[in-house]
Amino acid sequence: MSMDCRDFLDVKQYEFLLNYFMRRQKEMGLADLAEPLSYDGDSQYDRLAAQLMAEAALAYKERFAEAAPAIVFTNLFHLAELELSGKRVLRPKVSKNIQ
User: Fold this and answer.
1) What whole-number distance in Å separates Cα of residue 30 and Cα of residue 44?
2) End-to-end CA distance of the chain
3) What is the pTM of this model?
4) Burial class (CB in 10 A: 0-12, 13-18, 19+), 83
5) Under 8 Å CB-to-CB from 57, ≥6 apart: which residues?
6) Is the pLDDT of residue 54 over 90?
7) Contact of 51 with 26, CB cutoff 8 Å
8) Is the dihedral of CA 92, 8, 59, 39 positive or negative?
9) Which pLDDT belongs to residue 87?
10) Which of 30, 51, 53, 88 has its CA 20 to 30 A from that of 42?
11) What pLDDT sits at residue 43?
């Protein structure tokens, strides 16, 4: 079973974070990094991703006066990457009320 960050956020919160990550990833040039993948968690990409998620958590708390679960920052960070690369696959959200 996969975690969908939309289970934790309303539309405004979801859009705020997605747009935040897309804007900051462009500003930081994250997609332009030309480095091999690192498995130690200490590549330039890893450091920038961690910094960006920490910034997003602060921006979110300032905007909505509450914290969000860490999973939403990871999910929306990577979703923003896919969106910017043109590789995002839209999957309709299935209502939990449908049986």
Assistant:
1) 9
2) 17
3) 0.79
4) middle
5) 67, 68, 70, 73
6) yes
7) no
8) negative
9) 79
10) 88
11) 83
Contacts for 49 with CB less than 8 Å, ≥ 6 apart: 30, 77
Show the tokens assigned to 22: 């897309």
Tokens 């330039």 found at: 44
Determine the Cα–Cα distance for residues 61 and 56; give it in Å rounded to an integer.
Answer: 8
pLDDT tens digit string along 1-30?
445 677 789 999 999 999 999 999 999 988
How confident is the model over 26-42, as a mean pLDDT?
Answer: 78
CB atoms within 10 A of CB 76: 28
Report d(CA 29, CA 19) in Å as an integer. Answer: 15
**pLDDT for 61:** 97
Mean pLDDT, all residues of the chain: 83
3-state helix, strand, coil in the chain (%, to 5): 60, 0, 40
